[in-house]
Amino acid sequence: MSQKRYSGDPKRLYDFMTSFVVVCPKCDLDGEITVPYFLDYKNAIFTCGHCYHSEKAKDRLRYKSTAKANCNQCQASLKIEVADRKSIPNYITVICPECTSANKVKENWESYILKYNNSGTIDPAFGLPLWYQAPIKDEVIWAYNLYHLHEIRDYVSSRLRERTTDRYKMTMVEKLPDFIKMAKNRDEILKAIERMKIK
Question: What is the maximum span of the chain, computed from C-alpha positions, in angstroms?
Fold first, then answer.
C-alpha cells in the first residue's frame, strides 16, 4: 500500500504572515488582517465581511516614554512614565515629589501599536485571537490563515516526510511543536483541523 508523502517547499513561518484570519472585535466572527509588505504591521488593515467593521493599524499607533531626569529646582530624581499618547508633545510636565515644582521635560518617544491583547494565540499586528485554533489535550494547534492550515494538514496527514531544510533557515514544519509531529496524535489533529475549517 502506498503511503502519502510530504515533500513541500521549504517555507518559513514568515511566508504565511501576510494574511491573518482573526476573531472580529465587534461581531466575534471571522475577519481578515492583511499586511502589505513583509513584517509591515504598522500598515496592516483589518476588515470584517460580516459586520463590515474595519480599521487600520496606524490609527492605533501610540507613543510612550519611560525615562529618568532630575528636578530643575532641587535635583531630586524624577521617574517619567508616559504611555498611550496619540501624538508626541513638545514637552511633558512632571511634578517633583520632593519640592512639588513643575518640570518641563523633553523626552525620547517610542512608538507602538495599541493591541487588543498582548498575549495568547493572537496575530502580531492587532493582537486579535486567531480564528484557526483548537485545543488538543493540553496544547493548542493554530494557523494564521487557511493556506497555513492546509500546509499543517498536509504535513500531519503524510506518513513519509522528506526533510526540506534550507541550510539558511528553519522551515515552518520543522518548527512545529512535537505534539503535532507525533504519529499518535495524527487522527485527533486532523479532526481538529477539519472542525476549524467549517466553524
Answer: 85
Whole-number Å distance between alpha carbons of 48 and 31: 4
CB 117 within 8 A of CB 127: yes
Residue 63's nearest CA partner among 1, 12, 108 is 108
In the chain the first and final C-alpha atoms are separated, in Å, by 34
pLDDT in tens, 18-63: 999 999 999 999 999 999 998 899 999 999 999 999 999 999 999 9
Which residues neighbour 191 within 8 Å (Cβ) at sequence distance 6 or greater? none
Q: Look at the pTM and tell me if it is higher than 0.85.
A: no
Q: Are 167 and 38 in contact (CB under 8 A)?
A: no
**C-alpha neighbours within 13 Å on the C-beta side of residue 102:** 4
Q: Taking the CA of residue 34 as centre, how many other CA atoms within 13 Å lie in the half-sphere pointing to its CB? A: 4
Which uninterrupted H or E stretch holds 24? none
